[in-house]
Amino acid sequence: SYKPQPGRLKKIAEVAGISFWNDSKATNSSAVLNACRNFTDKILWIGGGREKGAVEEVWIREIKKYVKQAFLIGEVAPKIHRLLTKERVQSTVCRTLSEATKLAFEKAVDSIDVVFSPGFSSFDMFDNYLDRGNSFDKVVFDLKRQSSQTTQVYLT
User: What does residue 126 show for φ and ψ, rounded to 5 degrees?
Assistant: First the structure.
C-alpha cells in the first residue's frame, strides 16, 4: 500500500525495450549512489544541475562503477564531464534535459536502464524537483508516443 513520493526512483515507461527511471528528488551525491545500487547492470545516467557544494572525486570514482555513459545537464555539467572523462567514463554535456533524455535513448542498446537521478539542485533550470521530474516524464512519454507511431504496422 506504500506509495513513494513523486520523483523518487520510479519506472516511468519502457520504450523500445529501454526502461526509463525518474529519481528527480535525488539532489545529492548519496541519493544518486543509492539509486544506482538498485540496478544489476551499468546504467545510462542523466544528472546535473546547480552545484550545492564541491563535486568530490571520491564520488566520481564511486559512481563510475554503475554508469556506462552519462548525459549531463546544468551548471555543474562541464565539471562532472571533466571528472568522468578523467575516470574514463564516457559523458556528454547537454544543453537541456530534453536533449539529454533523447540522446540517452539514441545511445541505449540491449535493454539498458536510463536513470534520471540529478544529484544536484534543480534551480538553475527548473522551479523545483517536481517541475524537473514532470519535464523528464513528458520527454519520455513523447519518445514512447513517437516510437509507437513509427513501429505500428498497418494492414490493408
Answer: -135, 165
Q: How confident is residue 102, by pLDDT bands cut at 50, 70 and 90?
A: very high
Overall pTM > 0.85 = yes
Q: How far apart are CA 27 and CA 9, in angstroms?
A: 12
Q: Residue 51: how many CB atoms within 10 A of its CB? A: 17
DSSP state letters, the chain: ---PPTTSSEEEEEETTEEEEE-TT--SHHHHHHHHTT-SS-EEEEEE-B-SS---HHHHHHHTTTEEEEEEESTTHHHHHHHHHHTT-EEEE-SSHHHHHHHHHHH--TT-EEEE---SBSTTTSSSHHHHHHHHHHHHHHHHHHHHHHH-----
